[in-house]
Amino acid sequence: MDEPLERHSAMAGTFSSSTQPAKPFVKAFVHSSEPISRATSPGLACGEHEQEDNKKRYRPRTFDYFRLLPFPVEDESYRDAALNRLLKNLYISIMAEDFAPGALHWTRELTGWLNLKFEMTRELRARLTQLYYHLALAPGLDGNTADRFAKMVITLTRKKHYLKPGEDLTLDWRPLWKEIKALVLPSECGAHQSMRRRSQKHIVKLCLHCNSYFDPRERKAILDEVLPYFSTSAISNAYIVVNILNHILPTTPAPPTEPLSQPADYLPTFFHLWSLMARSKAFDICFIDMFSRMARDYLTCTHVPFTEHGIFTREQSDLVFTAILRLTEIPVGQANSPYTSLDVASGLGMYLEKDRKKHPVSYMVARWIAHSLSPMCLKAESSILSSLEGLLESIDTFFHPSNQGSWTSFLAQLTFYLTDIFVSRWNRENSGELEVPEERKITPELKKRFVMALREVTFMGIFSKGSKVVNYYYSTLQGLAFLEPDLILPGALQRFYPSLQGLVEVHRTTASLCGLQMIANIMSKQKGYRCHITALLALALPGIDANDLGKTQYTLNFIQAVAYSIPFVELAEEEKAGVAIEWVQREMARMEEEGQDVKICYREELTDEDEAEILRSSTAGLGQFVLALLGKVFALLENLPDSSHLRTGSPEDNVINTLPAALTPLFASLSPKLFDMALEKLAEFVSSHVIHQARDAMAWICSAMCKVNPEKTLKVFIPMLIRNIRSEIDDNGAASDRSSGTEILPRDRALVWYVSMLSMCVVHVGDEVLKYKRELFDIAEYMQEKCRGLPTIHVSNYVHHLLLNLTHTYPIDNALYEPDVIARGLDIQDWGAITDPAKLTIRWHRPSHAEIEFAVELFESQASGAARRLEQLMSDDPPVSRKGKNKEWSDELSRSLTAIRLIISGIATLFDPRRASGEVVNGDADPIQKDADGDAMMEEDDDPLAEVADDEELKRQFQYPAGYPLRPNDPLYDRIHKLREDIGEQLSKTHAFLNANQEDDVACFTALYAAYRTWITDVGIERSAHPLERLLRLYKADISPFKISGLRKQYPRPLLIKRADAYQLQRVKYNAAYRKKSKLDERLLMDLAESCTSTYSDVRRVAQGAQDSSLKVLIASRPLVIPVILEKFREALEKNDHDRIKGAMYTLLFTSLIKTVQRDWRYAPDLMRLYIQTAAVDKSSIQNLGSSALYQLIDFGKPFEHLIIFDRELVETIRPSDDDCSAIIQRRHDFIKTRRAQVEEKKASLGLELTKLAKDSHWRIANRCTIFALNMSLRFDRLAPPEFVDLVANGVNDTHPSLRANYLSAFTALFTAIDMRAVYGHDYRNYLLEQDIDENRIEVPVQADDPEAWTQKFLAQFGQYDEPEYFVDSDFPGWLVWGKTFLAWRGKPKPFLAYDEVEDAVRTQIGQIITKQWFAQCFEYLKQEPRDQNSDRFRMQNVILLSHVFDLMYYGKTVATLKDVIELVKEVYGDGSDRNQHRATAEILAALLSGSIDDPKEMRDQVWAFAAPMLLKVIDTDINPENLHYWATCLHVVIDGKDPRRSRELTEKLEAFRLDMNSNAAFKESSKLQLIEFIISDAGWHFRHEKPILEDCLAHIDHPYKAVRESIGRIIATIYRTRYHESFRDVTTLLEKNKAASSLGLAPYQPTEEFAATIRDVFDRLEKWRCERTPGQQTPSSYTSGAKTVLIWLDSMLSSQECIQLVPFFHDPFVDALLHMMDVKEDPELMKLAYHVYRHLPNIPFRAGADGADDAFLQALIRVGKTASSWHQRLRALVNMQVVYFRRLFLMGPRQREMLFDAVGDMLADPQLEVRDCAAATLAGMIRCSPRAIRDPIIYALKERFEKQLKDNPMPKRRRAGPGAPNAASGTETPAEVQRQIVRRHAAVLGLGALVEAFPYATPPPRWMPEVLAHLATRAASDPGVVGKATKGILAEFKKTRQDSWGVDQKYFTSEQLEDLEGVLWKSYFA
């Protein structure tokens, strides 16, 4: 994938505050640092970077991570040394076959190394990629491991600027093809291979990433390999092949010398394949995907001709645009969808479908269009660009916010991706990163036209209602404004100004604010437009409003975007403000005047001096703005609801989060003067107000202020806050007594307010706090001493913040500009200026010695204070009674614990992970650790049963400098670690005390375990706060308004600083990821383990959470806690203590322990035994837990990988050069072999134990035993122990149904294992290499020198049932092309006897169990009444098992014989009166027939001699509606996917069936036909006896019974569908013939003479019958019956892929015949069916100009519309005209278009009113969906025509007949003439109305519209009758759709026109 689709840049921005949780670590990094992974060839590195970089990457890094760190980092050589040791260990692990955990651990370390932004050489990267690619596909490797290796391939190749396809890396497609083939073409691979398949997700992912690295020279080879599998006879093969091509076919250019490898050679064939599967959405998507990747990859290729259609031809590009139009799924008139349900039949092709969410179709479409554009498009009249413009113009009404539907998000995404890819291409062409030939580069003219094409729809889209949709449009707006500010910004401002002034509805205001946020940065750089910014800010202010929080948030986002773009510095005096105000008002007036098409170009209109003056003047009001803004914010905070009731993610919460984000950059960009003003206002507010519910928000704002300038702010805030805190405590008695509960008392609120402000003022402000050291220290002591109750938590929080500030490393630099720029003074050239990442400098805060001393002192005093309180509370004489009823004691204790937790996490960065692990560290604090023998082997566990610790737990081998501030020989170092240990001891004591005295005190336990978790995890980094993830999430949200595709990190300076901070944190986090455990850690873990099974569920839950977090940090801690918990589990089960059982189950099975327990065979057996015991506990919650855990455990005990085949040569490429590792490898390998052996031994014995347990236990227990015994007992080398065989063979007839089902699947697995072992020659290696022995499989060579003759001969065999030489089961050989050979099976199979003694022993043992009695019992159960409706179906699992058992019987191994079985089957069937008898018999017969089908002839014939006649007899006599589906499935199982000659007895008999017109057993007739249909479709084109069946069906199309008719119709369709095949000689011929035919390849499905004759004959018969039928006849006639049969047949053909075959018959006879059928009022079913088929016609994708079929079809429609006698028929002709017009928009010639418009125009004057109305609607629709170039001339022509018609046909005058006046004197005016005149007049009115209605949303109205409306109002509105009514209707409709926009629209009418309109509609509206 070229651009990862995660980056919907707007998404994050517009909803920045509700950002999603951060992505997984690696991913977040990859995307945040490089916005796009690049396609095609990246630009070369800049010259100044030394040679070194060029070996590593093609494009130098934009951001210099190492230079910007505040501490010195390791040098290049250290990184390389680390890499070499990594690779050495990786090499050892792989060679020793230690994949998991060994190789996985080193793979993870390697990922870590790469994530730290270290670089390896390209050549090494390519070697590693080859290695991982090979390993990911190595046979025998465990699936999870392979998945991780595949991820590594993706990580290494993710960005193309490391490895260029072809130059640096070429991968081999064949290993991947082998995997795919096994997945989707199982019949082509060895037997039983599906068991060891990789997951399909893993394969598909690999394909997506690797196909660009496959060699394009191999393209022909891939086609040769894959295309022979294509066939539409078994339709899933078509899906499979095309999906495979889409996944593995490289789309990159091949050298010009390669034969048949250029687009012109293979594209025609692709278009041909596409047309073979019409009406399938999946095919449309697949081909557009392929073509779009080709367009991208060929853009830079010079030897392929490139035209205005890219590398495609005009015909091809028109076809693709037609498909795009289909994909939008826009509804037209009354048409149904252009797609049918074909895709349901994609079969295994589904596995290879791309996920539509990750790969949106709209993205593929946009990629195809954007990469095919070039300046050549500008001159040509038809080009990709003109088609794009046409596409958007023809569907523009569907972009309108009022017109929403299923198409909305597709169109939104399409506009977004088009812009995004175009912008990216423009930027990369300009930077030279994309090397495009000069004549293809985007030119300014092309860019302009592209922006013009998208402009209108984007302006409509930004006002959409759906939040997801509208985000796409905001980003589009940003991209377009970036490309062409002069085309976009005027229109944007013209729309946004009125919305901000509140002249339109609220929704438009929020949309405008979001739009402004996205373009603010671009505006700030553009001359003239930037003068609007301050005016816009002022207008946006009212948006901050507590009543509309959504709007408030968008306003703040806009202010934030502006603050990041301009300095808030007043560059002019207050008096000068007038210049700007006047100018802006003039501009606004001008925009209002000129309306939406306003054209502004400040570059030419304003001189630089004028612009500078206006801009300076516009800044004069900034001071007032800032004060007004703060006023608004304070008002907002005063009105916020109380925060304790808020849920996260609520609007209030979002606003509170957005405030600091918006105000930080604002404060940072204020000039000193404005800053002082703001500070004064803020300080005054804080000291005089207490707004309890806005406490946090206010604290954040103070913090934003303090960060910007600590010196000024702290001087104001600290003394004031401390003074107020003391006065609250001393004078108001705040927090003077203990309170319980969660509400803060009103008396304490002011205190809490001030403490919160203080705590946020002292964080991230650097060493400025040292000036106030005493005051801060004293107030902390004072508050801890005096305060009681809830406020104490806020006090602890203050200490926490102060510690963070003193000990962390962070940047204290928020300025928008570099210090030297600020020093020189800011002026207008700094507006929108961007800091170059290369010149960035950062002011960091590093903890100084004084700060650390202060921190330690504070830590000591606070920690010992809290510890003292704990001591007192737990003493014999606590200060608070433990008995008190209001939980005061517990509150006090938990608050002290909370204080401890906060203090520890505050000082976490000073703890050294190594010292915390109990190591003695001396010397320097950042030593680079080297192991003694220099070889970082795993700590080898002495006990081979232990799964060598999970790979995540192995120690990090390398530390990289991360700025740890202390040295081990510093006295402070010892002091803090000592203090930490004391706290740990204290916590453990508290735990013991609580367990003894307060076991039910949940609150205390919760606080205690939170402290435990922090104590263990927060070492070296404050892990519990997730600092890195939070920072990255904010960073991603902040950059979104500045992110432009194809530009690198052009972000405001504060955001670049954030990025550097994130990298610094990442290094800290890397070092503190894992640590070893000390003695104290172990004690605390034991405490937690104990509480994990507490009786109180709340305590358990907290303990489990804390334990899980702790285990992730401490290496090898899991084996420590597992035995403890297992022991508790055992006790709980013995005592039947339900709560503790639940605790243990949760802890072991639902936390991260489960992985370890399953793999560590010291504990696994115990866990299993206990788990099985829980099945007997009688409590539903425990039963539910047990069943949900089953899924986690389902693979428990399966064999470990015991043989992995990989290419050792490849691994040698990473072998360390310096030393020999063979001894280590040998040692490790032996250890692994021992481990495998011992673990297998354990499994075998546990398997036996469970087998015995299952024999006589309760069914619940037995059920679990069977599942796991099977996993542990069944092995390739020894099959299964006799006890197990006994258990399952007899268990199949167990009395309990669910046990039966389990044993059944186990027994089947056993049979499969025997087969598998025998087929692969008893050798596992053969199995992995897929080398099976099958004597019956043969390869038949193809002699296709004369493909016609060979194909005929091949097909003729299928017609002869006697003595075939071979059977062909697959459907694809030769359907599309002949390969060199194909697989077939012997005509006379040999018996399979290759069993060895192991297999024979088991077979004999089973044979002894299978007696007649066994069968009788088994059949009895099959016949049982099913438990519910769902299980009442033909059950495949029974058939599979029975066929295995029967197989044993045929070979004479069983006690029972075939004779016994035959007797039993007859008994089972009995009299066949009960459906259960039928079901059981169908299953048994299916097993007998399908199981023996490929046995030696004598065996097969014995079985078939009994079973086939029985099956046929049932079909003949006993079939009824309730058992038909069993027998149909039975037949299907026997014949599907098999050569029809294999089941000749059935085929011959069934195909001989003929219809009997006199039979009245309709059901029997139709069900037999259904079975014949099965036979034909299962055999496909191999079915050769179709002639008599077809003749029989065609002769009886007028059958009286509906069910029979439907079957006949379907059979005829099926026969014709399966007659088609192409059978080219080979792929080369296929390519050449298609190329020779046309750029679209050969037209498929040409009807044969014979077919044409049949169609004519059938329709002639229908016509004859129609004439014979008396009109109005109520009873069925031959005509109505025959017509229905034909309609079913047509419906079936038209909705499947071969619909094109019928195109030549559309115009004659279909159209007329269908219209006649719709006129049979007496038979509604016939009318409905005919209409349904009729509506299919315009949806059929026939080719343009293919023998004029489309012309003829249009003419037929027009003929009917103009001349048919029945008005219903004329009406229906119209319905299809519009659909045809829309579907073929890109394929229609001007002549056809003209024909249609003329016809519809003429039909406006139809005598029948309904037809006239419909014609008007059709005309409006056709005008609406025409591209502008076509639309405009037509509109003017029609307008003139209808106005003239209106004039020429005045309303006839009514004459009063005077007394005695002779009536005849009127002469010509006969009533008929009057009527005609009125009709013509009505037609003209409708025509003009259609023009108006074609543009319901166009605002402002097109130029001609006011004139037309006024014309109607004055000329026709006052007419009586239909004319006047129609006119008024048109005007009223116009008024209704314009209600919202009338304010704008009315300016486009002259006052006379408005008056004319007023005359018709009431006055007040138009006034």
Automatic annotation (TrEMBL):
Q: Where's the Proteasome activator complex subunit 4 C-terminal domain? A: 1879-1967
- Domain spans labelled Proteasome activator Blm10 N-terminal: 33-102
> What's a single GO BP term from this record?
proteasomal ubiquitin-independent protein catabolic process
Annotated region Disordered: the residues are 1-20, 1847-1873
Q: Proteasome activator complex subunit 4-like HEAT repeat-like domain: which residues?
A: 1360-1573
Question: Can you list the GO cellular component terms from the UniProt entry?
Answer: cytosol; nucleus; proteasome complex
Annotated GO molecular function terms are: peptidase activator activity; proteasome binding
Q: Where in the cell is it found?
A: Cytoplasm; Nucleus
Q: Which UniProt keywords apply?
A: Cytoplasm, DNA damage, DNA repair, Nucleus, Proteasome, Repeat
Q: Which Pfam families match?
A: BLM10_N, HEAT_PSME4, HEAT_PSME4_mid, PSME4_C
| Bias (Low complexity) ranges | 1858-1867
Q: Which residues form the Proteasome activator Blm10 middle HEAT repeats region domain?
A: 388-911
In which family does this protein belong, per the annotation? Belongs to the BLM10 family.
What is the name attached to this protein's record? Answer: Putative proteasome activator protein
